[in-house]
Amino acid sequence: MPQPTINHKLRIKRLTAGMTECQLAEAVARLVSAQTGHKAALDGNYVSKLERGRITWPNSVYRRALRELFDAATDAELGFYAARTRRDAERWLSGPPPADAAPRPSAALLPAVRPAATIAVPAPETGAFARPTDDAGRWPR
Known about the structure:
Elements: H1 8-16, H2 21-36, H3 44-52, H4 60-70, H5 86-94, E1 121-122, E2 129-130
Antiparallel strand pairs: 1-2
Helix pairs in contact: 2-3, 2-4
C-alpha cells in the first residue's frame, strides 16, 4: 500500500486560523449540526487523519463544512481528492481500451471482494426474522 500524502493545504489553513485539531473538529461538528441537525462523529483524531492523508475524501457534509469554515471554493483548495476505488478499476478493466492505450492487466489479478453484508428483516406474515440466502439456499459468507 502506498504511503499517504500529507495534506499540507488543510494543515496550513488550520494553523493559520490558530486552531488545534480538536478545535477544528469542534467547529466543523457545530457547522454540520447546524446544517443537518445531526451530531457529527468528528474529533481531533479524524482531523489528524485528514492532515496525514489517511483520509483523502471526507464525506460531503464534512467537506462542505470545511469549505465554509475556511472560505474555500473547492475541495482541492483544502487538499482533498477522491482516490481510485476497486469499482473504478473494475470499470476501467471491463471497458474497451482506447486505440493508443497500453495493454491492461487481467481482472483476475485484482483480489476478490466479498459482497456487501445483508441485513435480516422481519417477514411481514410471521414477524420472524428471515435469513437472506443465495440461490442455493445457503447463508452468504
